[in-house]
Amino acid sequence: MNAPAAPEPRGPEPRAEDRPARLSVGVVGAGRVGPALAASLRLAGHRPVAVSAVSDASRRRAAELLPDVPVVEPARVLALADLVLLTVPDDALPGLVEGLADTGAVRPGQLIVHTSGRYGARVLDPARRAGALPLALHPAMTFTGTAVDVQRLAGCSFGVTAPEELRLAAEALVIEMGGEPEWIAEEARPLYHAALALGANHLVTLVAQSMELLHKAGVAAPDRMLGPLLGAALDNALRSGDAALTGPVARGDAGTVAAHVAELRKHAPGTVAGYLAMARTTADRALAHGLLKPELAEDLLGVLAEPVSGPARPADPADGPQGDDR
After folding, report:
1. What pLDDT digit, counting tens, does each position of 263-314 carry?
2. N or C: which terminus of the chain has fewer CB atoms within 10 Å of its end residue's CB?
3. What is the Cα–Cα distance from 117 to 132, expressed in whole angstroms?
4. In terms of Cα–Cα distance, which of 125, 55, 136, 134 is closest to 90?
5. What is the pTM of this model?
């Protein structure tokens, strides 16, 4: 029988004195992230004690990932928990923190953790002034709201921002959840978050559009066709960056790109703007890195300079003297 595979290295374990004590954990906002993090902390020995949830979907997530944990109001979550996870949408976070602090819900010495990528620890200043210990722990992962998220946290990078005196405690919590802490400066949080959104969120849009187009082209299983291709492209990009660029834009095949644009205008006009924008960016990067030959770039960029709406059709006499290209 083969020996079991050795576990993946997760970096140095925190010293015993830097590990957080076993904590009661509360979740404010049972979206896709909070219950998964609390379930992961439970595996590390902490004790989820309360969760707030409003919608039916959030209540179902809480019941699935945190069975037997009561659903209560946010203020009650803070009253019961030593460690509070604020897992609400970015735009709701500042108001939530201010409201909890103004109503006296925050207790001195309480760990208040938010999971927003956009904000650092400064957004928690109202809670800090009330005596709380502020931490920003953002998992660089897409969540489904199911138990699979807990498994995916293993090896997941977390963007960590906290006061220097809390840095070791923040990193220890991340390691206990199976993650890898990556320190992000307060002022760099918006750029950090933009980078992740550019790569992950837009990838989903591009893949979904690609599958729709393949289906229109008659491919019975677009996901099966794209899986190996996209997996190889992602691996090559992570290993080699711009050197991994391939395809008609990087080669300067202006005729092929023009044919793409014509077909997209005919069958999926809603995809033209995205195709042109990404192709222009790809051409710029390929040219800058010596992959696209300058003598081929002019014709290609001419094709990509077409307006998104396409050339106006010839005027119809019935439209009147000015024509109508709407």
Report:
1. 999 999 999 999 999 999 999 999 999 999 999 999 999 999 977 554 433 3
2. N
3. 20
4. 136
5. 0.81
